[in-house]
Design goal:
This protein has 468 residues and is of the alpha+beta class. It is built from ten helices and seven strands. The strands form two sheets. It has a five-stranded mixed β-sheet. Strands 1-3 form a two-stranded antiparallel ribbon.
């Protein structure tokens, strides 16, 4: 298969050929109809000219015939015969132009009768002249009939030409409309066919951006699209290696730090216990500062290990059909001592729902949100865990009445180790990984977690797709 540019060029050439073929056919039909119209106009002019010539020749024939009878003049007789020959030539021209023979034959028969009356004895010339005058009146009537037939023939041909023009116009319109429809369908089909690999590329890039690296990237299509697919697969493998290296590095560093940290804690404890000698007040204060910082450092290392483990475990879901309401209630019961110590009320609401999930990991995500809500809720406040079914997802809302998230922190609350501006009064400062672990586990289920904007409340929503 060629490159995308080549396929696009071929598509444009096909569309251009289709439209160009239709346009050329329209030009050919128009030329043919114009030529036919010109021929019909020439024939109509010729027929009209012949009809006018016939009428003119007939008038000249009548004068010459009657004068030759009265004057017995042979020159006038020859003039009559010449005009009659010219008139018959006009008849032949009309016959060649399409006028039927039976229309012209009475005129020929009538002139033959007139010729017979021109021959005879001189003493009957005046009587024959009066008879010839009557015969010419009948010939004039025949001339009118021939002229009418000529006009009828011309009008019939014009009508047939108009009908042909209308039929050609309809056919041409149908062909143009069919060509446009076919072109649109062809363009849509080619657009969909050519755009499909790019949609797959887009999904692959989104997966890479969201750190979903478990599925190989193999996108079929034009050569340049396959080339990009191969580069993305290389990038996926490279990111997988880097992710594994990062996890290894974090594990090694964390474990390596724990040993000297343990020694440091033991040393500080020995100093505080006075094993090396009694400490004065200032020394005791320094030892206490060292002790507190070793505890903070230990908490940071353990948080780092937990986040690293959560990021790894998020890719290994063990889904089972799970009742969600009992799962939420279990997290509430597991932290009963914490929320009762702050005189909080915790409620679980919603209708029973069953979903295929990893109960342990989703339970951990809900537990982290509940722990945050307990830490930030004012004494005597209420925390609500709301389970609901939306058209496209299952929602788990954790709502508390705490201080909320500062506007500048809303876009960063799910970043690892990020701690917001607002912290609970008198409480220990968090490690900043709880919400990151929530996001890891929820995204692994194909869902998302987000912070809702509700005045007076802090609401985190977990959205899990039905297909999960």
């Amino acid at each position: 298969m060629g490159s995308f540019r080549q396929l696009l060029l071929i598509a444009f050439m096909l569309i251009a050929a289709l439209l160009g073929g239709t346009a050329l056919r329209a030009v050919f039909i128009l030329d043919r109809l114009m030529a036919q119209s010109g021929e019909e106009a020439a024939r109509a002019l010729a027929l009209n000219a012949a009809a006018q010539s016939l009428a003119s020749r007939t008038a000249t024939m009548e004068r010459a015939a009657r004068q030759s009878l009265v004057l017995s003049d042979s020159v006038l007789r020859r003039r009559f015969e010449e005009e009659m020959t010219a008139a018959r030539a006009a008849l032949q021209q009309m016959e060649a132009g399409g006028l039927e023979v039976q229309v012209l034959q009475p005129w020929r028969d009538q002139t033959a009768r007139i010729v017979r009356f021109l021959d005879g004895p001189a003493d009957t010339a005046l009587e024959r002249e009066r008879t010839v005058a009557g015969e010419f009146r009948e010939l004039d009537a025949l001339n009118s009939s021939v002229t009418a037939q000529v006009q009828a023939l011309i009008e019939g041909r014009n009508r047939a030409l108009r009908q042909q023009l209308e039929a050609s116009r309809r056919r041409l319109t149908q062909q143009v409309v069919a060509s446009i429809v076919l072109t649109v369908l062809l363009a849509l089909a080619l657009g969909v066919w050519l755009a499909r690999p790019f949609r797959r590329l887009e999904r692959a890039i989104v997966d890479l951006g969201e750190n979903r690296l478990e599925h190989p990237i193999n996108i079929q299509g034009p050569s340049d699209v396959r080339s990009v697919s191969q580069q993305l697969e290389w990038l996926r493998l490279r990111l997988t290696e880097l992710d594994a290296d990062k996890a290894r590095f974090l594990r090694h560093v964390s474990h390596e730090l724990k040993t000297p940290l343990a020694a440091l804690r033991e040393g500080v404890a020995l100093l505080q216990d006075g094993v090396t000698g009694k400490l004065n007040a200032n020394q005791q204060e320094v030892a206490e500062i060292l002790h507190q910082n070793t505890l903070v450092l230990q908490a940071q290392i353990e948080a780092l290990l937990r986040f690293n483990a959560a990021a790894f475990e998020a890719r290994q879901l063990k889904r089972t059909k799970t009742e969600l309401l009992p799962l939420l209630q279990a997290q509430v019961d597991g932290q009963r001592l914490q929320w009762q110590a702050s005189a909080l009320r915790v409620e679980v609401r919603g209708a029973p729902l069953t979903l295929a999930i990893d109960a342990d990991k989703l339970g951990t995500a809900v537990a982290n949100l509940l722990s945050n809500a307990i830490r930030f809720s004012p004494p005597g406040g209420t925390i609500v865990l709301q389970l609901s079914l939306a058209p496209e997802a299952v929602h788990i809302d954790v709502r508390d009445e705490g201080v909320g998230v500062a506007p500048d922190d809303r876009d960063r609350v799910f970043e690892p180790f990020y701690r917001g501006e607002r912290q609970p009064r008198g409480g220990a400062r968090g490690t900043g990984i709880g919400l990151s672990i929530v996001q890891e586990y929820v995204v692994a289920h194909g869902g998302r977690v987000r912070l809702l904007a509700e005045p007076g409340f802090t609401v985190f929503r977990i959205e899990l797709p039905h297909a999960a």
